[in-house]
């Protein structure tokens, strides 16, 4: 129970063999910050900015965005916030704000595709993020990246936004870090080619699982087939972690699996550096991490990728997770 987990507040998020995992929170609204702070989370690992549009049914102004981003950054103190640029389309907004309905929105105009297709809207958001970065620690992250070229293009627009602010003599963090979400199988497969362009990866297991298994993440009929422990998904994840570390960058996971203690042994075993979870899950996951031995976890991953049945591994994961409670 949560009451029983209160003892986890303020504890270091380290495995029993001393591997530190950064544990931060996912938010959509500023007010959700309170629970992250209360539970001692390391800032915000995913700020879903679509809420602006979903709330107002209109795109926010630069000033409005800059104000919200700066407020969240201030609340995150030294840990900072990872602001994800608009991920409109798909489940967030089946009907894009720019266009009519699509026959297959999950395979349609979504995330970075919309941003690159509407560079003025994108640049306004990037200017707002940059302006807020003068007031607190902020990182930027692009959603739904499929190939390195999209990251390069997005960064060109970021550079243009920076140049404008310099002209206007508006301050911003010139060393702001940029990350790519890895949530499309092609991006996972070319993670080594994307890595040189970014400072970090954050794996979106909700979409990565959906696209790898061809299982709609919001369709109840196929919900039993939606398994992030599928050997195929885990092999991809393992590939992403290796590509990140080979390139000297860190890699986090911000999909729902990060907040489910059943998966914690696998994520720790793969060497993930950061987990960003629902604010309510912070203490549960901290507790789980603190009970695990990373080499034992790595063996579990090895068995799974070598072909041990997913059911069996899930059972073992649960046993490990149960041991935690
Ligand atoms: C994901 O896809 O796992 C993710 C974190 O992003 P979202 O759920 O917002 O698509
Ligand atoms: Mg996603």
From TrEMBL:
Its cofactor is Mg(2+). Mg(2+) binds at residues 183, 207. The keyword Translocase does not apply. It is found in: Cytoplasm. Residues 11-293 form the PEP-utilising enzyme C-terminal domain. One of its GO terms (biological process) is phosphoenolpyruvate-dependent sugar phosphotransferase system. GO terms for cellular component: cytoplasm. The active site is at 254 (proton donor). Its EC number is 2.7.3.9. GO terms for molecular function: kinase activity; metal ion binding; phosphoenolpyruvate-protein phosphotransferase activity. Keywords: Cytoplasm, Kinase, Magnesium, Metal-binding, Phosphotransferase system, Pyruvate, Sugar transport, Transferase, Transport. Phosphoenolpyruvate binds at residues 48, 84, 206-207, 217. It catalyses: L-histidyl-[protein] + phosphoenolpyruvate = N(pros)-phospho-L-histidyl-[protein] + pyruvate. General (non sugar-specific) component of the phosphoenolpyruvate-dependent sugar phosphotransferase system (sugar PTS). This major carbohydrate active-transport system catalyzes the phosphorylation of incoming sugar substrates concomitantly with their translocation across the cell membrane. Enzyme I transfers the phosphoryl group from phosphoenolpyruvate (PEP) to the phosphoryl carrier protein (HPr). Belongs to the PEP-utilizing enzyme family. This is Phosphoenolpyruvate-protein phosphotransferase. The gene is ptsP. The chain holds residues 268 to 592 of 597 of the full protein.
């Amino acid at each position: 129970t949560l009451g029983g987990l209160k003892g986890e507040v303020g504890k270091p998020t380290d495995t029993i063999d001393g591997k530190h995992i950064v544990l931060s929170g996912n938010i959509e609204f500023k007010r959700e910050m309170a629970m992250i702070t209360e539970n001692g989370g390391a800032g915000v690992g995913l700020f879903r900015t679509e809420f602006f549009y979903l709330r107002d049914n209109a795109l926010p102004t630069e000033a409005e965005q800059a104000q919200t981003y700066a407020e969240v950054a201030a609340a995150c103190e030294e840990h900072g916030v990872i602001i994800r640029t608009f991920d409109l389309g798909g489940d967030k907004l089946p009907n894009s704000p720019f266009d009519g309905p699509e026959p297959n929105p999950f395979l349609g105009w979504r995330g970075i595709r919309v941003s690159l297709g509407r560079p003025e809207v994108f640049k306004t958001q990037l200017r707002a993020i940059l302006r807020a970065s003068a007031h607190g620690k902020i990182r930027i992250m692009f959603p739904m990246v499929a190939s390195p070229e999209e990251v390069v293009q997005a960064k060109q627009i970021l550079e243009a936004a920076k140049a404008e602010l310099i002209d206007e003599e508006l301050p911003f963090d010139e060393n702001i870090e940029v990350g790519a979400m890895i949530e499309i199988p092609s991006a996972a497969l070319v993670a080594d080619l994307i890595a040189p362009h970014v400072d970090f990866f954050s794996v979106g297991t909700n979409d990565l699982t959906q696209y790898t298994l061809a299982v709609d993440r919001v369709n109840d009929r196929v919900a039993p087939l939606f398994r992030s422990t599928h050997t195929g998904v885990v092999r991809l994840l393992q590939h992403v972690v290796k590509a990140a570390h080979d390139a000297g960058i860190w890699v986090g996971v911000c999909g729902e699996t990060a907040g489910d203690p059943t998966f914690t042994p696998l994520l720790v075993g793969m060497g993930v550096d950061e987990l960003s979870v629902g604010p309510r899950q912070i203490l549960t996951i901290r507790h789980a991490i603190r009970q695990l031995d990373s080499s034992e976890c790595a063996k579990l991953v090895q068995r799974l990728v070598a072909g041990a049945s997913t059911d069996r591994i899930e059972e073992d994961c649960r046993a490990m997770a149960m041991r935690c409670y």
